[in-house]
Design a protein that fits this description.
It is found in: Membrane. This protein is mainly alpha-helical. The protein contains nine helices and no strands. Helix 6 packs across helix 9 and helix 7 packs parallel to helix 9. It is globular.
Length: about 210
Protein backbone atom coordinates (compact mmCIF):
# COMPACT_ATOMS: atom_id res chain seq x y z
CA UNK A 1 0.00 0.00 0.00
CA UNK A 2 2.80 2.41 0.94
CA UNK A 3 4.68 1.68 -2.28
CA UNK A 4 1.51 2.25 -4.30
CA UNK A 5 0.85 5.63 -2.69
CA UNK A 6 4.50 6.61 -3.10
CA UNK A 7 4.26 5.75 -6.78
CA UNK A 8 1.09 7.80 -7.16
CA UNK A 9 2.68 10.75 -5.36
CA UNK A 10 5.75 10.58 -7.59
CA UNK A 11 3.56 10.56 -10.70
CA UNK A 12 1.53 13.48 -9.36
CA UNK A 13 4.69 15.50 -8.74
CA UNK A 14 5.49 15.08 -12.42
CA UNK A 15 2.57 17.39 -13.19
CA UNK A 16 4.10 20.23 -11.17
CA UNK A 17 5.46 22.73 -13.77
CA UNK A 18 8.97 22.99 -12.36
CA UNK A 19 10.60 24.19 -15.60
CA UNK A 20 8.00 26.91 -16.04
CA UNK A 21 8.37 27.95 -12.42
CA UNK A 22 12.15 28.22 -12.73
CA UNK A 23 11.91 30.49 -15.78
CA UNK A 24 9.33 32.72 -14.07
CA UNK A 25 11.19 32.87 -10.76
CA UNK A 26 14.60 33.54 -12.33
CA UNK A 27 13.20 36.27 -14.56
CA UNK A 28 11.51 37.93 -11.59
CA UNK A 29 14.69 37.73 -9.50
CA UNK A 30 16.72 39.32 -12.30
CA UNK A 31 14.23 42.17 -12.53
CA UNK A 32 14.12 42.56 -8.76
CA UNK A 33 17.90 42.80 -8.76
CA UNK A 34 17.89 45.49 -11.42
CA UNK A 35 19.17 43.32 -14.28
CA UNK A 36 17.35 44.68 -17.35
CA UNK A 37 18.26 45.26 -20.98
CA UNK A 38 20.13 48.45 -20.04
CA UNK A 39 22.46 46.37 -17.88
CA UNK A 40 23.39 44.09 -20.78
CA UNK A 41 26.80 44.64 -22.36
CA UNK A 42 25.94 44.64 -26.06
CA UNK A 43 29.31 43.71 -27.50
CA UNK A 44 30.91 41.07 -29.67
CA UNK A 45 32.07 39.29 -26.52
CA UNK A 46 28.45 38.98 -25.39
CA UNK A 47 27.31 37.47 -28.67
CA UNK A 48 30.23 35.02 -28.74
CA UNK A 49 29.35 33.74 -25.27
CA UNK A 50 27.13 30.65 -25.64
CA UNK A 51 25.60 31.28 -22.20
CA UNK A 52 24.10 34.53 -23.51
CA UNK A 53 21.75 32.67 -25.83
CA UNK A 54 20.02 31.08 -22.84
CA UNK A 55 20.47 33.71 -20.11
CA UNK A 56 18.93 36.35 -22.36
CA UNK A 57 15.64 34.50 -21.84
CA UNK A 58 15.39 35.71 -18.24
CA UNK A 59 16.42 39.33 -18.93
CA UNK A 60 13.50 41.73 -19.48
CA UNK A 61 13.04 45.41 -20.22
CA UNK A 62 10.84 45.91 -17.16
CA UNK A 63 7.88 44.50 -15.26
CA UNK A 64 5.46 45.24 -18.12
CA UNK A 65 7.68 43.30 -20.54
CA UNK A 66 7.98 40.45 -18.03
CA UNK A 67 4.25 40.20 -17.29
CA UNK A 68 3.35 40.37 -20.98
CA UNK A 69 5.61 37.40 -21.72
CA UNK A 70 4.39 35.40 -18.74
CA UNK A 71 0.75 35.77 -19.79
CA UNK A 72 1.63 33.66 -22.84
CA UNK A 73 4.42 31.49 -21.45
CA UNK A 74 2.83 30.22 -18.23
CA UNK A 75 -0.48 28.74 -19.49
CA UNK A 76 1.05 27.03 -22.53
CA UNK A 77 4.08 25.95 -20.52
CA UNK A 78 1.88 24.39 -17.85
CA UNK A 79 -0.26 22.68 -20.50
CA UNK A 80 2.81 21.23 -22.23
CA UNK A 81 4.11 20.03 -18.86
CA UNK A 82 0.85 18.17 -18.20
CA UNK A 83 0.93 16.62 -21.67
CA UNK A 84 4.61 15.65 -21.58
CA UNK A 85 7.11 16.33 -18.77
CA UNK A 86 9.29 19.02 -17.25
CA UNK A 87 12.29 17.64 -19.10
CA UNK A 88 10.44 17.87 -22.39
CA UNK A 89 9.39 21.47 -21.70
CA UNK A 90 13.02 22.34 -20.92
CA UNK A 91 14.03 20.88 -24.28
CA UNK A 92 11.42 22.87 -26.20
CA UNK A 93 12.28 26.07 -24.33
CA UNK A 94 15.99 25.60 -24.99
CA UNK A 95 15.60 24.81 -28.68
CA UNK A 96 13.04 27.51 -29.48
CA UNK A 97 14.74 30.31 -27.53
CA UNK A 98 18.32 29.32 -28.33
CA UNK A 99 17.93 28.82 -32.08
CA UNK A 100 15.67 31.84 -32.61
CA UNK A 101 18.19 33.96 -30.70
CA UNK A 102 21.00 32.72 -32.93
CA UNK A 103 18.98 33.65 -36.03
CA UNK A 104 18.07 37.04 -34.55
CA UNK A 105 21.64 37.92 -33.59
CA UNK A 106 22.85 36.73 -36.99
CA UNK A 107 20.51 39.08 -38.86
CA UNK A 108 19.93 42.05 -36.54
CA UNK A 109 22.40 44.28 -34.72
CA UNK A 110 21.31 44.15 -31.11
CA UNK A 111 20.31 41.67 -28.41
CA UNK A 112 17.07 39.72 -28.23
CA UNK A 113 15.94 39.56 -24.63
CA UNK A 114 12.95 38.20 -22.77
CA UNK A 115 10.97 34.96 -22.58
CA UNK A 116 8.77 35.67 -25.58
CA UNK A 117 10.67 33.27 -27.83
CA UNK A 118 10.28 30.51 -25.25
CA UNK A 119 6.59 31.42 -24.95
CA UNK A 120 5.95 31.13 -28.69
CA UNK A 121 7.97 27.91 -28.79
CA UNK A 122 5.97 26.17 -26.05
CA UNK A 123 2.73 27.47 -27.54
CA UNK A 124 3.52 25.81 -30.87
CA UNK A 125 4.67 22.64 -29.13
CA UNK A 126 1.52 22.46 -27.00
CA UNK A 127 -0.68 22.85 -30.08
CA UNK A 128 1.22 20.15 -31.98
CA UNK A 129 1.12 17.77 -29.02
CA UNK A 130 -2.61 18.38 -28.54
CA UNK A 131 -3.23 17.54 -32.20
CA UNK A 132 -1.11 14.41 -31.86
CA UNK A 133 -3.06 13.23 -28.81
CA UNK A 134 -6.45 14.00 -30.37
CA UNK A 135 -5.53 12.04 -33.51
CA UNK A 136 -3.35 9.33 -31.98
CA UNK A 137 -5.54 6.60 -33.48
CA UNK A 138 -5.18 8.05 -36.96
CA UNK A 139 -2.45 7.45 -39.52
CA UNK A 140 0.81 9.37 -39.59
CA UNK A 141 -0.34 11.12 -42.77
CA UNK A 142 -3.52 12.31 -41.07
CA UNK A 143 -1.62 13.64 -38.07
CA UNK A 144 0.91 15.31 -40.33
CA UNK A 145 -1.82 17.04 -42.33
CA UNK A 146 -3.58 18.20 -39.17
CA UNK A 147 -0.37 19.59 -37.70
CA UNK A 148 0.44 21.50 -40.88
CA UNK A 149 -3.12 22.84 -41.05
CA UNK A 150 -2.83 24.05 -37.45
CA UNK A 151 0.66 25.53 -37.48
CA UNK A 152 1.14 26.99 -40.97
CA UNK A 153 -1.68 29.61 -40.77
CA UNK A 154 -0.32 30.81 -37.42
CA UNK A 155 3.19 30.95 -38.85
CA UNK A 156 1.85 32.97 -41.75
CA UNK A 157 0.22 35.39 -39.34
CA UNK A 158 3.43 35.82 -37.33
CA UNK A 159 5.40 36.38 -40.53
CA UNK A 160 2.91 39.00 -41.73
CA UNK A 161 3.13 40.80 -38.38
CA UNK A 162 6.92 40.78 -38.55
CA UNK A 163 6.93 42.23 -42.07
CA UNK A 164 4.30 44.85 -41.26
CA UNK A 165 6.09 45.89 -38.07
CA UNK A 166 9.22 46.83 -39.98
CA UNK A 167 11.84 48.32 -37.68
CA UNK A 168 9.83 47.67 -34.52
CA UNK A 169 11.86 47.21 -31.32
CA UNK A 170 9.87 44.02 -30.72
CA UNK A 171 11.66 40.95 -32.10
CA UNK A 172 8.75 39.74 -34.22
CA UNK A 173 10.94 37.62 -36.48
CA UNK A 174 12.41 35.96 -33.39
CA UNK A 175 8.83 35.07 -32.40
CA UNK A 176 8.25 33.62 -35.87
CA UNK A 177 11.35 31.44 -35.73
CA UNK A 178 10.69 30.39 -32.13
CA UNK A 179 7.19 29.24 -33.09
CA UNK A 180 8.67 27.39 -36.08
CA UNK A 181 11.41 25.68 -34.06
CA UNK A 182 9.10 24.79 -31.17
CA UNK A 183 6.47 23.32 -33.47
CA UNK A 184 9.03 21.43 -35.55
CA UNK A 185 10.67 19.94 -32.45
CA UNK A 186 7.33 18.71 -31.14
CA UNK A 187 6.27 17.39 -34.54
CA UNK A 188 9.34 15.14 -34.57
CA UNK A 189 8.16 13.53 -31.33
CA UNK A 190 4.51 13.29 -32.32
CA UNK A 191 5.12 11.85 -35.79
CA UNK A 192 8.00 9.52 -34.96
CA UNK A 193 6.54 7.98 -31.78
CA UNK A 194 2.75 8.34 -32.08
CA UNK A 195 1.90 5.67 -29.51
CA UNK A 196 4.74 6.35 -27.08
CA UNK A 197 4.71 9.60 -25.16
CA UNK A 198 6.51 10.65 -21.99
CA UNK A 199 3.18 10.74 -20.21
CA UNK A 200 0.61 8.00 -20.61
CA UNK A 201 -2.44 9.40 -22.41
CA UNK A 202 -5.53 7.16 -22.72
CA UNK A 203 -6.69 6.67 -26.28
CA UNK A 204 -10.18 7.78 -25.30
CA UNK A 205 -9.00 11.01 -23.65
CA UNK A 206 -11.55 13.79 -24.04
CA UNK A 207 -14.49 11.45 -24.57
Amino acid sequence: MTARWASRLWRALGYVPITVGLVVATSALFLWGGVTDTAVDVSLVTFLNPLWYMLSMVVHDGWAHFSGNMVLFVPFGVLLTWLTSNRHVALVVGVSHGLSNVVWVGTVVGPAIGSSAAAFGVMAAALVRAVGIALQRQSVETRQTAIVATIVPLLGGLFAIAVAAGASPIAHFAHFFAFLFGGATEAIYVLSTPETTERSIPVDVGR
